[in-house]
Structure of Methylglyoxal synthase:
Amino acid sequence: MQTTEQTLPITKNIALVAHDGKKAALKKWCLAHESILQTHKLYATGTTGHVIEKETGLSVEKLLSGPMGGDQQIGAKIAEHQIHMLIFFWDPLASQPHDPDVKALLRLAAVWNIPVACNEVTADLLISSPCMAQEITRSLPDYQGYLATRLD
């Protein structure tokens, strides 16, 4: 498939997701980076969003809880180019009943070429990048071009 380019804005749309065993770690991470996060638009799965909003005061657009479809909602926003970065503190030591949704979410992030952090250190590296405060260009699949060749 051919690719196209898209410029991501200075103000990024950041999705925040955490499994139950990692919600406290994500809350702590958000508190540590509150001054940066407040300059961006935040989305989160339901319970995670409530925890972050209550404990940090950050404004968060809350979707459904992950197991109730929130992971899929974030995946849809990624596919629609509405999410520019995914911070997903997943718990690799606990089984998740919605594991197929989690894998689909991570797959979409890879397909649409958005940065993903699955732990605190990687999230620290992403959030402290100079790219957070500037427009950046990313390559992504040219789905419209693909469709055009299939409809001829």
DSSP finds seven helices and seven strands in the chain. Residues 62 and 138 are 26 Å apart (CA to CA).
